[in-house]
Specification:
Blueprint: E1 3-8, H1 22-33, E2 37-42, E3 53-56, H2 64-77, E4 82-85, H3 88-92, H4 94-101, E5 105-107, E6 130-133, E7 136-137, H5 148-151, E8 156-157, E9 171-174, H6 185-195, E10 198-201, H7 212-220
Length: 225
């Protein structure tokens, strides 16, 4: 049985997010379905778990130092383990990461396709009570200030998201970059309305795509006020 260690860098003023690491939670489901023994840690762990592979996530480019800290720690502690680094920083600044660690780390850029449609393993974060998901990836816009075209270059939309909602959760947090650009947005809104869950359009809505129909559907949605 393979042993997989999933690492979120230590949260601090330099590395802060109120949300769980969605990519790692999906990787957990992926590897567990293959029969692996999966462990998730935040920051530095000193227990006796000896992983075969270590997956480290990263946030924005300015928050790279805590990522480097955990890479150094785990590469020294587990010299034979494969270390894979993914996430936003790894995708946007692979040269910076490679310059720091050479071939000691494997850099994964962009999404991990095989895990995209899997339900995140929320058992790793039992304190978390909302389902985070994307009904679409990418964006139809190409704003010069935005990194989405580099991280998710192709716009893809899902016709359904029921399989991505954890049964015990009462709230859905949507991380779409542009949900209203989805061909299936009406179907998604129908599902959310049928499920009766609170909905957080966390990344906002494209004002250029707002119209009376959208406004009516939003009014019918269970939005937090």
């Amino acid at each position: 049985m393979k042993k997989i260690l999933l690492v979120e860098p230590q949260k601090s003023k330099k590395y802060h997010t109120p949300y769980p690491p969605l990519g790692l939670l999906k990787l957990s489901t992926y590897h567990k379905e293959k029969g692996a023994n999966v462990r998730f840690v935040r920051g530095f762990s000193g227990d006796g778990f000896e992983p075969d592979s270590i997956y480290i996530t990263s946030l924005f480019t300015y928050a790279y130092e805590p990522v480097h800290d955990v890479i150094r720690y785990y590469s020294n502690r587990f010299k034979k383990a494969k270390i894979v680094v993914g996430g936003i920083y790894a995708t946007l600044c692979p040269d910076h990461l490679e310059e720091a660690f050479g071939d000691r780390v494997e850099i994964h850029q962009g999404l991990f396709g095989p895990a995209e449609e899997l339900l995140p393993d929320y058992s790793l974060v039992p304190e978390w009570k909302s389902s985070i998901l994307f009904t679409s990836r990418g964006c139809i816009r190409r704003c010069l200030f935005c990194s989405v075209p580099q991280i998710e270059p192709e716009f893809k939309a899902k016709p359904s998201i029921r399989h991505l909602i954890y049964p015990r959760h009462k709230k859905v947090i949507l991380w779409d970059n542009n949900i209203l650009a989805s061909f299936y947005w009406r179907d998604i809104f129908d599902e959310l309305e049928e499920l009766g869950l609170e909905v957080d359009f966390n990344q906002g809505l494209d004002a250029r795509l707002l119209n009376e129909e959208v406004a009516i559907r939003l009014k019918r949605s269970n939005l937090p006020l």
